[in-house]
Amino acid sequence: MPFETKELYKKYTLNLQVPAQREGAASNGELDSLRKQIINESRLRFDLVNGANGFESKSEFVKVINKKPGKKQEGAETNAPEEKLGDYITKTSGNTVAVEIPDKKEVKLNLLMLCDNVNLPLEIVIDVGKDAKLNVFEWFGSTTTEGAIIAPFHVIKVGERSDVEVNILHNENSKTTVGSLNKANVEEKASLRFNVIYNGGGLTRTTTFAEAAGKESNLLVNEIVFGHAEQKFDVNTFLLNSNEFTKAMLRSGAVLRGKSYCILKGYAKVARNTRGSYSNVEEKGLVMDPDSRIQPLPDMSIDCKDVAFASHSASTAPVDKEALFYLMSRGIDETKAKRIFVASFISKYLADIENDIVKEVAISILLDKLDNDRHSQVPRISMQNLWIVPSERAKK
I need a labelling partner for 289 at 20 to 30 A (CA). Which of 128, 162, 227, 383 fits? Predict the structure, then answer.
């Protein structure tokens, strides 16, 4: 990413180790068991699922393209793994998931992608035509016991005047490494809401490049990180306004417990001759335990004098002791009071998600992690604890 040439950003980088591929590692039925559990608890109809027998598509808009993997690469640590990770995914992935939405179509999809002890590099191409609407939910999980990587590479194109929402939940277990790449291009008068929840994985490194390319296009990248124990997250996002009257926003929020660590690197660039552009980077963190650490690193480059708005900000804090005392003085015990803070913090980010099922699944999984100090589980799904917060889009 452009800003990572700076010494400050080089300093705050987590190395990504790609585990060596295990040929034919058996799932012992655990992958299929997890798939059934997710389907039963979420009550979702998945249009794409995978298990011990590979991928199965149940929608005319989702195709699984089988290809012969190229030369396989061994894992190697690197401080800037985007190019190497992208090369690894394209060379070793055996499948490409292609989501194609024709002009003027309105489609809603749910995709379930699971990983066992075999690495899962996966290309996901989302191509939306003109005047179309797509809402897609991707659930990533794992049953890894010996160490593996789940590595999706998204390429998203949003056609003119289309409206797209991509919701991604990473809920892998602690033995799994998550290496994710995302590239998005939004054309004239189109909008993309890219919502990602990073909850699983022992180590997660993700990079997102998103461009508001067409005139009057609208782009929102909305990220939630929830870490505990010794989970580590390195979340990199690059936004680009490259045309007039475009809007690009990054909202990143992290809640950390235990000895977890998160780096939030958000960079926005407003190119030349992009009058009337709107650009904003906002990073916030809630630290629940003294050993948790959040490092927010927002940055911005403005090459146009005539912008409508440009701003970046960052803040991290522990739970407000005075507010906590106030709640406890009203008869709420400390555990429940902290739970209220976390639910409130998370709900502000979930408010911008249009898909109510995604909100319900996300709040249930994240609060189960808070209550039971575990992750990658599939608890009872309930919307009871979701605070209804007006979204920024609704306010405007």
Answer: 383
Tokens found for residue 223? 């990220």
Asked, for residue 154, whether it belongs to a domain, the answer is: yes
Tokens 């709107």 correspond to 278
Torsion sign across C-alpha atoms 183, 189, 190, 192: positive
Q: Is residue 394 in some structural domain?
A: no
Nearest of 172, 117, 127 to residue 148 by alpha carbon: 117
Beta strand extents in the chain (DSSP E only):
48-51, 54-57, 62-66, 95-101, 106-115, 120-128, 133-142, 148-158, 163-170, 176-186, 191-198, 203-212, 218-227, 232-241, 247-256, 261-270, 278-287, 293-302, 309-318
Within a domain: 326: no
H runs (alpha helix) in the chain: 7-11, 30-42, 82-92, 321-329, 334-350, 356-372, 392-395
Query: Between helices 334-350 and 321-329, what is the axis angle to 10°?
Result: 120
CB 241 within 8 A of CB 248: yes
- Give the list of residues 6+ apart from residue 386 with CB closer than 8 angstroms, or none: 343, 347, 350, 359, 360, 363
Residue pair 114/50 in contact (Cβ under 8 Å)? The answer is yes
Q: Which domain holds residue 251?
A: 2-319
- Count Cβ atoms below 10 Å from residue 86 Cβ, excluding itself: 18
Residue 158, sorted as left (phi over 0), alpha (psi -120 to 50) or beta, turns out to be beta
DSSP-derived secondary structure letter, 140: E
Locus of tokens 């005319």: 60
Nearest by Cα to 233 from 308, 283, 163, 184: 283
Report yes or no on whether pTM surpasses 0.85. yes
Structural domain tally of the chain? 1
- Which two tokens mark 4? 């990572």
Q: What is the pLDDT of residue 131?
A: 98
On whether residue 233 sits in a domain, the answer given is yes
